[in-house]
Amino acid sequence: MAENRAKLIKAARAAFTEKGYAAASMDDLTSAVGLTRGALYHNFGDKRGLFAAVVDQIDSEMALFAKRKGAETGDDWLGLLAEGAAYIELALNPDVQRIVLLDGPAVLGDPSQWPSQNSCLQATKEMLSKLISQKVVKSVDVEPAARLLNGAALNAALWVAASDQPEEALPLAVDAFHALASGLHNSTSG
């Protein structure tokens, strides 16, 4: 069953990236991996359920990529900034752009309510708490600060993905994210 699930997610990811959610045919997708529609319905309920599983997979990969970029800095504050920038930069990736940022909100609703986004929010809250205790970040309420940072990165990525010229929008979005986030930095911490 896990093998069938993995096959369906892999095939759906390719189909949703190439054709988009609306144009992706479930019959084509299931036959391409040698399965029936019954296998799709058994594992995911319907096309929307399969799409949600693909979005969750990609969004989780995005979070891991961003976390890795943050860790590479060797500094918690710079890591927080790098994580947000990395998330925004992923808007240029075709899978991310088409599935998560363009079709995702239309099919699944508000991205801030997706389970994968909630885990990102939790990680941001933990990092902000740490930075506040280190006096690197101003003493602010962690919940709204984390929501604002995550929302800024998500909305910047959405804007880049929907832009007519995403490569030109990207540096503008990252610069604006850094400027916004820097308002939280406690400049007296050195």
From TrEMBL:
Keyword Cell division: no
Residues of the HTH tetR-type domain: 2-62
UniProt keyword DNA-binding present: yes
DNA-binding region(s), residue ranges: 25-44
Domain of life according to the entry: Bacteria
Record's keyword terms, sorted: DNA-binding
Protein name as it appears in the record: TetR/AcrR family transcriptional regulator
Source species: Microbulbifer elongatus
